From TrEMBL:
This is Alpha/beta hydrolase. It comes from Acetobacteroides hydrogenigenes. One of its GO terms (molecular function) is hydrolase activity.
Length: 178
């Protein structure tokens, strides 16, 4: 599979480990990871500014963001602040930062922006993600104007849920790339 866009990987809280699908995709396809300054006690403003700094290095109309978990919420805040058009965003397993399951130490990621994103997006969700209920993720997708893809009982769509290379996710990414 080949991609024509500039694909930027945005891991969530704690970064994506060696066996995470984001890391595997990054290695195989030479995607660029956006490195945040603080993965364990993140501040939304810092993450948003880092996203803007990295996206600014590219022709934004050729950029696709691939966000997981908390990074999905950071993308919504980035879109709200900068209203920049990009080619698209694949938003996988958004974390509900207004729920009690939010990891401690996360600052400024609530309330979750209820805006229409100024670019095409796909939200991928699971029926049994402990970081966000199906109903909440469905509401995020509706507000954001995103296509919603439910992949059934898939946990947090990460290695502990059995997701390594995740070929089907690559097919969703390819849809945004075309």
């Amino acid at each position: 599979m080949e991609f024509s866009s500039d694909i930027l990987i945005l891991p969530g809280h704690g970064n994506s480990g060696e066996n995470h699908w984001q890391t595997l995709w990054e290695r195989e396809y030479d995607f660029k990871r956006i490195e945040q300054h603080n993965w364990l006690t993140p501040t939304c403003d810092d993450w948003v500014e880092t996203i803007e700094k990295e996206v600014s290095k590219y022709d934004s109309e050729e950029v696709i963001l691939v966000a997981h978990s908390l990074a999905c919420i950071a993308v919504a805040y980035w879109a709200e602040r900068y209203n920049r058009y990009i080619k698209g965003a694949l938003l996988v397993a958004p974390c509900d930062t207004e729920a009690p399951t939010t990891p401690p130490g996360i600052v400024g990621f609530d309330p979750i922006p209820a805006i229409e994103l100024p670019f095409p997006s796909i939200v991928v969700t699971s029926l049994d993600d402990h970081f966000a209920s199906w109903e909440r993720t469905e509401a995020f997708a509706e507000c954001w104007g995103s296509k919603l893809v439910n992949i059934g009982k898939a946990g947090h769509i990460n290695p502990s849920s059995g997701y390594g290379k995740w070929r089907w996710g690559l097919e969703l990414l390819k849809r945004l790339d075309e």
